[in-house]
Amino acid sequence: MSFPQNYPNSPPTVRFTSEMWHPNVYPDGRVCISILHPPGDDPNGYELASERWTPVHTVVLLI
């Protein structure tokens, strides 16, 4: 897990280092879930703003 300089305003990034297959894990290990996407509108229109990262979320919520 990596934290950006402007955390908690921006979400951390999560990456698995061991090889695995999961529909929410890219081949390079990056995790793709709504709560880890930056705040704001989804350019693809699939996620609600309430599903995306907000500064009140904590790392515990991700686990």
Automatic annotation (TrEMBL):
Residues 1-63 form the UBC core domain. Keywords: ATP-binding, Nucleotide-binding, Transferase, Ubl conjugation pathway. The active site is at C32 (glycyl thioester intermediate). GO terms for molecular function: ATP binding; transferase activity. Pfam families: UQ_con. Signal peptide: none annotated. PANTHER family: UBIQUITIN-CONJUGATING ENZYME E2 (PTHR24067). Belongs to the ubiquitin-conjugating enzyme family. This is UBC core domain-containing protein. It comes from Triticum turgidum subsp. durum.
